[in-house]
Amino acid sequence: MLEDMNINDIxxxxxxxxxxxxxxxxxxxxxTEIETPYPEGKIIVSTSDTKGVITHVNHVFVEMSGYTKKxxxxxxxxxxxxxxxxxxxxxxxxxxxxxxKKWQGIIKNLRKDGGYYWVKATVIxxxxxxxxxxxxxxxxxxxxxVVAEFIKRYPTLRGSK
Amino acid sequence: MMANRxxxxxxxxPDYLAGWYLFNKxxxxxxxxxxxxxxxxxxxxxxxxxxxxxDLVYVNPFDxxxxxxxxxxxxxxxxxxxxxxxxxxxxSDTPINGITDLKPDLKLAMTEDPNINMxxxxxxxxxxxxxxxxxxxxxxNYVLIVKNLLEGHADVGLFLAKAYDELSWVxxxxxxxxxxxxxxxxxxxxxxxxALAEKRDEIQSLLIDMDKNKEGQDVLRAxxxxxxxxxxxxxxxxxxxxxxxLSIQS
Lengths: 161, 250
Ligand SMILES: Cc1cc2nc3c(=O)[nH]c(=O)nc-3n(C[C@H](O)[C@H](O)[C@H](O)COP(=O)(O)O)c2cc1C
What we know:
The complex is a heterodimer.
Chain A: E1 15-21, E2 25-31, E3 44-48, E4 54-57, H1 59-65, H2 69-72, H3 88-98, E5 103-110, E6 116-128, E7 131-140, H4 144-153
Antiparallel strand pairs in A: 1-2, 3-4, 3-7, 5-6, 6-7
Chain B: E1 4-8, H1 17-31, E2 35-38, H2 43-53, E3 56-59, H3 61-71, E4 74-79, E5 86-91, E6 107-110, H4 114-125, E7 135-138, H5 142-150, E8 156-160, H6 161-165, H7 169-172, E9 175-180, E10 189-192, H8 200-208, H9 214-223, E11 228-230, H10 233-246
Parallel strand pairs in B: 1-2, 1-3, 6-7, 6-8
Antiparallel strand pairs in B: 3-10, 4-10, 4-11, 5-8, 5-9
């Protein structure tokens, strides 16, 4: 459902792993230790259908992810999934939004070039006539203190900056 | 004939006050409706009037979302190229050059424009400033924020970027922009009440075609606008959801 990452897109020294993901099945990842600092002032916006498939992105999403708009539309938001991220926050996210509630949390996101960026994300269900028809998400620059706390909680992130 | 009421978010420069009266005259002539323009000096009063008995409104994205979601207002149009971005501003005399220089316990001056305040607080959260460690002071309008920043009664001000841009250069010389938001996506909107819904298509067409003739162009110029662009229900539903997502602080 989501193609492997392309080694030709990767910038810098990389690690390799294949993960079996819930939404997208097996995917081969190439990822680096290079952080793209989240720029001050910018807000990432996107919407999805009920399965998390991207239906809209703003220009900040395009810029931070490294993909073109065309590459993003129609793909699952799991295209952003970083191999270091634990499963737990995503389970919480889906449990929360599918029950009609709003979710907020810290996420380490993967870029097309194998690098990463931290966000504080909000995801809300879009409800029309009592039915969830999709989701809307905004991400902003997280506080460095909050990211440090988050890294401490999850062993898979311990190597992260 | 009962007059219809038209109101506008109080965030435009005084330079455009006459423009709004001109626009109202143009609307009445085009539609044959009797329309009273009611303008207020602060968001609070304007909002009460809007929610209780306005028929036509040009309002900020937050009020637009509420009016569409809670009161059944219908979208007509937005202004070409006009997004609601937020700027964080200080007195130019201070040694502060970016938001990372800001420290807790500062006095933050804001109006009651909810999306500007929401986004402003989101940007400040990145440097660990929040409701718990700053003092918020609410002023009626942006002119009063300028005054209090210049007199040293407030340390930092939140402005609608367009309102800040419209300040005179003499004033702007005494102020310093620390950061401007980059969201895109959210904008002031022209809406019509459900009571006047049968006029929706007609008024929408008039607005969209306004820049296509000399008379319309002159009125638009008096407002500092290039043209109106159609906003449909789907686009407005997207903005309602987005405002909902932006409203969640932590
Ligand atoms: C609106 C919306 C936005 C999302 N944003 C992200 C994101 O920024 N990063 C991310 O890794 N997952 C995001 N997700 C969750 C993904 O859909 C997916 O659940 C996650 O990447 C983990 O993959 P998995 O569920 O296949 O294990 C988002 C989901 C929705 C509905």
